[in-house]
Amino acid sequence: MSTSHVDLADGRRLAWSEYGEPGGRPVLFFHGGNDSRLAGALIAQAAQRRGVRLICVDRPGFGESTFQAGRRLTDWPDDVLAVADDLGLERFAVLGHSGGGPHALACAAGASGRVTAVATVSSVAPPGASNAGLHPAFRVVNVLMSSRRLYAPMARSQLKQMRNSTDRWLKMWGRMQPADGELFDRQPQVRDDVVAEMEEGARQGVDGIVLEAALYHRDWGFDLAAISAPTWVWHGARDRQAAVAWAEYLAETIPGARLTLATDSGHFSTLVEYADDILAGLAELAD
């Protein structure tokens, strides 16, 4: 796995990594809100099996992509089109995990002529969707996320704990997200990949993470009901970080969207355990 870059007209640089089948169907994969382009490793084998060229892009301020002050969700489609143009991709599917979900949907709204299909996994929903089912700790985090001033100290503290006390941090995550904890116990490589890609996400510090978190909690700037690209909403029924009610909201609001609830899965485990089905579903929708 190597990292590529494209220089943008405003002087910023975007970084991405590729996984899967180089000549396969192109899918641009958008990582979660504490993650990075290295999240592609979590579904790389599934991409290879399904003949998918998986392109995972660092968002501004994450990994090796330049921070963008004042950015909005609606800025993201232009960045994605710059990557697609650099790669010579006229049409492509988009896949967003967690905080990547709103970004995938923004592309469906803002670059509709080039997006063949959309899948969200464990996605955030717009303000106004019910928070029913969230773990109490995540309820507190969600409140803090809406304020950059309040969330920044927590984000720095979480990053420090993950780096300095990784085992303790993983145990805490497993208590809040039991389905993910069970996955990490069964597949230690997945656990290690999650830690590595989250550390890379904070390579520049937490400014990008904190700015983006606030975006989830304000108007997204586009109309979900106007999305015309075929859309599949995937969510773990045991996810305590992203509420099942959020997935239901997305599926009810986006015209024709399909909803699949993974009975025994959580936040990361839905992405990992259903990766083959998710990628196959994108191909089905695109056809």
How would you describe the overall organization of this protein?
This protein has one domain: 3-Layer(aba) Sandwich (Rossmann fold). The two termini are 29 Å apart. Helix 6 (166-176) packs across helix 7 and helix 7 crosses helix 8 (188-201). The protein has an eight-stranded mixed β-sheet with strand order 1-2-4-3-5-6-7-8, sandwiched between helices. By secondary structure, the protein is an alpha/beta fold. The model has no long low-confidence stretch (mean pLDDT 94). 45% of the residues lie in helices and 17% in strands. The chain contains twelve helices and eight strands.
Concise overview:
The chain is α/β, with parallel strands linked by helices.
- Which fold does the CATH topology refer to? Rossmann fold
Beta-strand residue percentage: 15-25%
Q: Gap between N and C termini, in Å?
A: 29 Å
Kindly report the spatial arrangement of strands forming the biggest sheet.
1-2-4-3-5-6-7-8
- Just name the CATH architecture: 3-Layer(aba) Sandwich
What labels would you give this structure?
8 strands, Rossmann fold, 287 residues, alpha/beta, single chain, globular, eight-stranded mixed β-sheet
